[in-house]
Amino acid sequence: MPPLSRSPLPFAADSAVARFRHGGREIEISGRLRTGGDDLLLFLHGIGCGKAMFDTAFDAPELAGFSLCAFDFPGHGNSPPLPSTRHSVEAYADITWQVLAELSPRRVFLMGHSLGGAVGLVACAGLGNLAHFVNVEGNLVAQDCGLVSRNLAEQPALLFRERGFAEFLRQLRGSTQPDLRIWATWYALCDPTAVHQVAGSLVEWSDAGKLLEIFRALPRKSYVYGDEGNRLEHLLPSLRSIPQHAIVGAGHFPMVDNPPVFYRTLGELCLLERPG
Q: How far apart are CA 267 and CA 244, in angstroms?
């Protein structure tokens, strides 16, 4: 029997909540699953975002031959915050591991955006059935933290909970950029402590330089980015040996700015690794 056809599966149609264990406690994770084959494409979202940012993927014809899964990290979207441990890249990677273990696909295609790129890199270490890793503007070096995560993490925790979180939400809602206003709808659902803690963890990982090393060492990977502006001029030269794909007319959220081209690109990258 194909692994993804068994029952019950986490995030089954009758319930979008699955239970896992982390830090010795049971936690609830909200997710969405579509079974469509033994190969799984798992989406990992960015900081202050959620699984909703990948809603259009479930209708993308280019991904019709894959099982798809997206879930909310703790303290994001509809997943409650962690009850007893720090929200960190490692914690989210552990939960990603558990999701994959429960789904038990034949092969895994991991797509990580921003924070999700870092989480995916930590989670995929030693993952024997990883077919391809698609890094969508995921954090790799210290400069990747300059726009958001470092600014959030450097605020004192109490001040961020009382003022900083709401202030950043006001900035997103008042932005002239449509993608940032959409981000505000996801960010508003997040737990301030979760956002602050995982931002600090993401800065630590990015500053350490380990994420770029892990990414370079993967045998099958791609880097996808929006072509608007010069936001990544610090990084792209160091990725010259890695396949790069620019999404036209897109910024940091190519799945929002240009979903048809983004999911067509994603589908083409995944299909290259499928036999026959």
A: 15
